[in-house]
Amino acid sequence: MKPRSAIVATAFALALVAGVNEARSGERACRSPDPVDTIDKMFSAIVACWKPPPGTAGMTLTLQFSIRRNGTLIGKPRATYSHLGD
To answer: Is 13 helix (H, G, I), strand (E, B) or coil?
Structure first.
């Protein structure tokens, strides 16, 4: 059973397309102290800090992870799906 205080983010899809990354990275600075209190803000926070390696256009990765109310991870994120791209 998962603790009640945990927020479970299941099957959180990250589209690792350079164009999406560049477009969304302007919305938030990496390691911004601003609160992350919605799924959309969590996506923006991850994308702001994510630096995919060259040649990953079209790559998709789905992660499963849990976080505490204070934002720290519970355990390690787990990749549940990956597609290497075009």
So the answer is: strand
pLDDT (tens digit per residue) in 24-76: 545 788 888 888 888 888 888 888 888 888 888 888 888 898 988 887 889 99
Burial class (CB in 10 A: 0-12, 13-18, 19+), 52: middle
Q: Which residue from 56, 58, 65, 55 is spatially nearest to 46, judged by alpha carbons?
A: 65
Assigned token pair, 36: 């992350």
Q: Which two tokens stand for residue 60?
A: 């998709």
Q: Which helix (H) or strand (E) holds 11?
A: strand 7-16
pTM listed for this prediction: 0.52
In a 3-state reduction of DSSP, which class is residue 83? strand
Calpha distance 4→2 (Å, rounded):
6
Q: How far apart are CA 26 and CA 71, in angstroms?
A: 22
